[in-house]
Design brief:
The protein has about 1100 residues and is of the alpha+beta class. Helix content is about 40%, strand content about 20%. It contains 27 helices and 39 strands. Helix 4 runs antiparallel to helix 6 and helix 23 runs parallel beside helix 26. The chain starts with a strand and ends in a 15-residue tail after the last helix.
């Protein structure tokens, strides 16, 4: 729809179409569809058919023809515009106007609505007009039907209805015209643009004309007349100008210098007399300070002005006259301008003439006050353009001014702060006038939209400085905010108990020096200040935490004073967290997620004030242990907490308060190291006491000085019984160790990290071998706790073979007779298992060393540790001279928790009895008989080895073989198997020689005898003859006992075995010896009975206590 703007009077109706031709044309938007005819067409009487007219109108609207003549537009060729397309095809100088255009549809709808509403109102108004009663009731019987009702009411209704129709008709006719013109909206828009352009050009022309006239008028003052060169030359040459008029004035005689001085002295005298006599009571209070000199009196008002007055008459009733005026405050102009001087001279002289000196003072005083306010105002405006830009709002209030500071500090609906400077009359209601009271500058301060009534803000009007005044006001505002924050922080426990520092420093003139210092940590303070220009909070030193605190106070706090506590405490807590993260990382400490909720912590620990809960862990701790710190304004509290998982969730299993200083800790290496030690001690102590209680082991806690701990850390020692530790789970009764006292003293010694726990065979049951065999990964780093266990032996001489450090972590002091054990356990775990393994190993070691010490054989300890004992020995006895007894053989005892493993070096002849030796040391006897059997059986083992070596060649020739049986440590058997010569397939000839170690009359000797398996133990064969020859040989070292031989345990047993073996080997290479059958049978039986009786007596003889029972098989 084309827009249109129409301004038309109601009287223009002649050329417009009426309502009567609405049936003769098709209307569009209230207009006829026919294009308007041009003037030429109307004069020639040409008209178009209805159909043609419609087509022409349509083509006119499509082609954009302004006259609507489609024939002409069709006949003329289309023009091609070479210029860029532009609205209405107007030049660039003409601006296209679109402001104020209204859509035609909106205009028509509004007019239709208006007409409808007014018609309804008019009908309602006409209905209220009452007609005459006769016409209404129909009482007139002779009313003619052709006569109209001419009553005034009826005529009024008709006239009103006609006027309404005429007015609306005129409005709708205008709409018809506008609708008709809407077809030519493009042309009308061009006309509007041209009209606007013409009016702009006319306005510019008038403006230029006014400027030209103003310039011409202003140049009149700058016009200089042409110089009179002729008069100037004559005057400069002759000194006179005859043509100049002479007014014949009588020139007064010139005063000499003496006369001038006398005249000035007279004036001074008159001024002095007048002020001291005549006008003394009329001098204002503030004019008492004056000086008289040079014919004038100078009244001085400090901080305001100085005025010079004089007199022009000797009559004291005459007034003073103004001479000069000067400001005595700064900043102020040094000299008055001529215009101001003339103005002041007139006003002051007027006041002097009317009210005398009092009027002069009042006028100048009020003038100075006004000027001071103006100076304050000027400086304030300069501040708004300087560094106080966008922070001040200055407003002049008649003879006062207001300055609002910290404009952008709060939101628009927030509180505001400002000052108002004005003039106070100095008069008090209901009191007499005081000559000393006068008007003065006054200052009112509104802080946070509330006036401060008791504000003591000095106003230095002698040295005017708006910035200094603002600084004094803002300093008090800053001091109020900081003091309020300080007052809210001070009552809390951290500051009342002096656990943390809180310092308030307020300056009354410089707000930048006012600050509030709060201790965040050891040696670290947060300084809170407020900017004097913006009112924003600032915190130093600059860091991430202080920046967040600034943002919270500046942008997110509705009331910074109320929210300052939480903000500053949050900054402190974040500072503590950052310090622990920054400095604790190198020491292994880190912040952990809370394992339990704050409500659970509050209920379990009974905390009244729960602040920021901080959970710490150290690398190497188990998942159950934490350090919990409650950082609050009431004071920081630290706990060592143990967490356990239950069906209901995670719960606090145990908690212990850490005895830390109430002051802020220094999170340095020293503190963190001590914290590590303290927590490790407490964890270990808790785990140990809990394990002792669970195992029902009696213990005792004893305090004392532990030099391994810091001086302020007190951890008691634990004393437990040795018998309770050595008792195993399967032993109902205690085992008392006779070699030591029954008390073990355990004390903490230190901590350390271990990426892989130390594996010791006697303590870990081969766990390290299993891990390596399975290829498992090494365990993660753990915190190890080191403890010192002291054990005093009953007889230090029993451990004389020990020298200093028995092992890496076990030492023995001969002089004190004390074992020192360095125990190692993971933090939070008990060390009782490790201690039990160590003490069991020492118990075994004690048995071994005691046995070696008591033995009279040549046996020595070469290496002694808790895991291994290396022994060297010979077959001799101890030599006081220390001379060697031949080759020394080595045996190694591996001490493990379950058994002692004995092993010989390669080539040791006693290898055949290895199993028997191991059975001996793992029996109840332990190492008691080990030195005896090692040394006593060595000769026989060497002899048995030589027997085996001698029969190797016979065995390869299939002539015979030998078997050596180690039945026990004190019982050996040698079994010979010989072939029959020239008898293939015949059974072997067999000889079995037994060697038993028997004790008789506290003397131990070897008994060698023959005993064959089967029913016949001692057959009469060739072997008997061979043995008899050996047993009864001449120059023998052994003793024959009928059917057996008795010999010592030294080399004699070896010689006997070699002799028997040599005789048997000769028999193996020779023919069998015939047996004499004529031997009396009774003689043989007598010998057998005597031999049996001897062995029964040997077996029935009691043996020493603790000795190994000898099994007699030949009964």
């Amino acid at each position: 729809m084309m827009p249109g703007v129409v301004m038309m009077e109601n009287g223009v109706r002649a050329p417009l179409p009426t309502n009567h031709d609405r049936d003769h044309s098709q209307l569009v938007n209230g207009n006829g569809a026919f294009a308007p005819q041009s003037a030429d067409d109307r004069l020639s009487g040409a008209s178009a058919a209805p159909g043609q007219g419609h087509n022409k109108a349509s083509s006119a609207m499509l082609d954009g023809d302004e006259n609507g003549d489609s024939a002409k537009s069709a006949a003329q060729p289309l023009r091609q515009n070479t210029n860029p397309s532009r609205m209405n095809d107007l030049p660039d100088e003409i601006q296209h106007v679109t402001m104020g255009f209204v859509p035609l549809g909106l205009l028509l709808s509004r007019l239709a609505q208006k007409t409808h509403n007014q018609l309804g109102d008019e009908i309602a108004a006409l209905a209220k007009i009452q007609l005459p009663s006769q016409a209404v009731n129909g009482n007139s019987a002779h009313v003619s039907a052709g006569i109209e009702d001419t009553s005034p009411e009826n005529l009024t209704k008709k006239s009103r209805l006609l006027n309404f129709a005429q007015e609306k008709h005129a409005e709708w006719v205008k709409m018809a015209v506008i609708a008709r013109w809407s077809r030519n909206a493009k042309s009308v828009s061009k006309l509007i643009d041209l009209m606007g352009h013409l009016r702009q050009q006319q306005a510019k022309y008038l403006e230029i004309l006014d400027q030209t006239i103003a310039i011409k008028r202003d140049l009149a003052g700058a016009r200089i007349p042409n110089p009179d060169i002729r008069t100037a030359q004559y005057v400069l040459t002759t000194g006179t100008a005859p043509w100049m008029p002479d007014l014949n004035y009588i020139e007064p005689p010139r005063l000499t210098a003496k006369e001038q001085l006398q005249w000035i002295e007279n004036i001074n005298t008159l001024l002095s007399i007048r002020l001291n006599l005549e006008d003394y009571d009329n001098i204002p209070y503030y004019f008492r300070d004056y000086t008289i000199t040079s014919g004038r009196v100078t009244f001085k008002v400090p901080g305001e002005f100085e005025v010079d007055l004089t007199i022009a008459d000797e009559d004291f009733d005459k007034q003073f006259w103004f001479i000069d005026f000067r400001f005595t405050f700064a900043p102020a102009p040094a000299e008055l301008s001529d215009a101001l001087r003339m103005y002041l001279e007139g006003k002051v002289n007027e006041a002097l003439g009317k009210d005398g000196l009092m009027g002069c003072y009042k006028y100048l005083h009020e003038f100075v006050l006004t000027h001071k306010i103006s100076e304050y105002m000027r400086q304030a405006l300069e501040l708004t353009r300087g560094r106080w830009v966008d922070t001040l709002k200055v407003e002049r209030l008649n003879r006062a001014m207001s300055i609002q500071y910290w404009v952008g500090r709060y939101p628009p609906e927030g509180p505001r702060s400002w000052i108002i400077m004005g003039v106070n009359s100095g008069k008090k209601a209901g009191t007499a006038d005081d000559p000393k009271s006068c008007s003065h500058l006054t200052l009112r301060w509104f802080r946070d939209s509330k006036e401060v009534m008791d504000a003591d803000i000095p106003l230095d009007d002698a040295d005017i400085s708006t910035e200094a005044l603002l600084n004094r006001v803002i300093a008090r505002h800053v001091g109020f905010i900081l003091f309020s924050i300080h007052s809210r922080l001070k009552p809390h426990g951290r500051f009342t108990k002096r656990e943390a520092g809180l310092v308030l420093d307020v300056h009354r003139d410089d707000p930048t020096k006012s600050s509030l210092k709060m201790e965040l940590g050891y040696g670290c303070y947060a300084t809170v200040g407020i900017s004097s220009t913006t009112g924003m909070f600032s915190m130093k030193p600059q860091s991430k935490n202080t920046s967040k605190g600034e943002q919270r106070l500046n942008w997110f706090a509705k009331d910074p004073i109320q929210e300052s506590l939480g903000c500053l405490e949050s900054v402190r807590c974040h500072h503590v967290v950052d310090e622990i993260n920054r400095r604790g990382k190198s020491a292994g400490w880190f912040i952990s997620k809370p394992p339990v909720k704050a409500d659970i912590v509050k209920d379990v620990l009974g905390l009244r004030d729960v602040g920021q809960l901080l959970w710490l862990k150290r690398g190497g701790w188990t998942d159950a242990w934490y350090i919990m710190a409650n950082l609050s304004l009431s004071g920081d509290k630290w706990w060592l907490v143990e967490i356990k998982n239950h069906n209901e969730g995670t719960r606090i299993f145990s908690h212990t308060s850490l005895p830390l200083s109430s002051h802020a800790p220094n999170f340095g290496d020293k503190f963190l190291a001590r914290l590590t030690i303290l927590t490790a001690v407490m964890m270990s102590h808790t785990a140990d006491t809990r394990a002792l209680g669970q195992r029902k082991i009696k213990h005792m806690i004893r305090g004392g000085t532990n030099f391994a701990l810091p001086a302020n850390v007190k951890v008691p020692a634990i004393i437990i019984r040795l018998s309770d530790i050595l008792r195993r789970s399967n032993e109902p009764e205690k085992r008392v160790a006779s070699w030591a006292h029954d008390f073990v003293h355990i004390m903490f010694k230190g901590t350390g990290n271990s990426a892989r726990p130390l594996r010791i065979r006697d303590r870990d049951d081969g766990a390290s071998k299993d891990v390596e065999a399975k290829g498992e990964e090494s365990p993660k780093e753990s915190l190890r706790v080191f403890l010192d266990a002291r054990l005093k032996v009953s007889d230090p001489s029993r451990f004389g073979l020990l020298k200093g450090h028995v092992e890496r972590d076990v030492a023995f002091n001969r002089h004190l007779g004390v074992f020192a054990l360095r125990l190692e356990a993971e933090a939070g775990h008990t060390m009782l298992d490790t201690l039990a393994h160590r003490l069991q190993a020492i118990d075994k070691l004690a048995d071994c060393i005691d046995a070696i010490r008591r033995s009279n054989r040549d046996i020595q300890c070469e290496e002694i540790t808790l895991t291994k004992v290396v022994i060297t020995y010979t077959d001799g006895v101890k030599s006081e001279t220390g001379q060697p007894h031949g080759k020394r053989w080595k045996v190694t005892l591996a001490l493990s928790p379950d058994a002692i493993v004995l092993s010989f070096d390669e080539g040791n002849p006693q290898q055949r009895s290895l199993k028997n030796f191991r059975s001996l040391i793992n029996s109840d006897l332990r190492c008691l008989k080990l030195p005896f059997f090692l040394s006593r059986t060595l000769p026989i083992h060497r002899a048995l080895v030589s027997v085996e070596e001698a029969w190797e060649s016979l065995g390869t020739g299939n002539q015979g073989r030998v078997e050596i049986l180690a039945c026990n440590l004190d019982w050996f058997a040698v079994r010979y198997h010989l072939q029959w010569p020239n008898r293939v397939g015949s059974p072997h000839r067999m000889l079995t020689v037994h060697m038993k170690l028997l004790e008789y009359r506290e003397e131990v000797k070897w008994h060698v005898f023959r005993e064959e398996p089967g029913p016949v133990k001692k057959p009469e064969d060739e072997f008997k003859q061979v043995l008899d020859k050996v047993f009864n040989a001449e120059d023998k070292e052994w003793q024959s006992l009928i059917d057996c031989v008795e010999t010592n345990t030294d080399h004699q047993i070896g010689d006997l075995i070699k002799a028997i073996d040599e005789a048997v080997r000769r028999l193996a290479t020779q023919s069998p010896i015939p047996i004499k059958q004529n031997q009396a049978r009774g003689q043989v039986q007598a010998k057998n009975q005597a031999y049996a009786s001897y062995h029964r007596n040997m077996a029935a003889k009691p043996r020493p206590q603790g000795g190994q029972a000898v099994v007699v098989l030949d009964d």
